[in-house]
Here is the input.
Amino acid sequence: MIKVASYNIRKAVGTDRRRMPERIIDVLNELDADLIALQEADRRFGIRHAVLPDRLLEMHSDYRAIELPTRVESMGWHGNALLVRRNQSHADASVIHLPCLEPRGAVMACIEIKGIRLRTVGMHLDLSGLWRRRQAAAVQHHVDMVDVQHPADATILMGDTNEWTANRGCLQDFSRHYDIAPCGRSFHARRQIAELDRIMWRGGLTLTDSGVHSSVLARRASDHLPVWATFDLR
Here is the structure.
């Protein structure tokens, strides 16, 4: 079994408007997932410093950020980052350039986890429905092209899709080739009205459970709640 999660941490600014990275790390520890995709993990302007510095993660969690060919000060790419457990190996970490109206991107890594090659993409899609569909096509095309030369046993796509309508728009596009876990409503943390955060998969995985992590701490730490899914690898 493996557990994965996706979490828009809103640059560690909570629903109380206080920036507290330590609070985000506490939520990550509550999740206790093998692999976590983060969105809005870097400051938006200037040098784009990481919201969760390496030292803070090392001191207070079992996680580390997968290194990407991006700015030294940043944790991810356009705020997208992937976390694995500290002793977990990975390969082929890269960034995905997305067509965009506003700055957007995705990150990808192939992770050897519990005996399988798991290709994982973390993403944060546009506010515009038209651009979301273009970005969904770009993500799927990029994964397919990489799979031709470096096939994986399974693929998981995770992130904030910004898609408010179920089975429409970019979700309809993804669903042609991926199954979508029924995680539930993750936005807004104080009043859960929309399923914006999604976990999708294809390949040698069987979904066993999924949901929204709505602890007291998570409802304060960000305006999004984390979503999670567990899979059987057999």
Observations:
- The chain has a mean pLDDT of 93.
- The helical segments are 21-31, 54-60, 129-149, 169-175, 218-221.
- Residues 129-149 form the longest helix (21 residues).
- The domain at 2-232 is CATH 3.60.10.10 (Deoxyribonuclease I; Chain A).
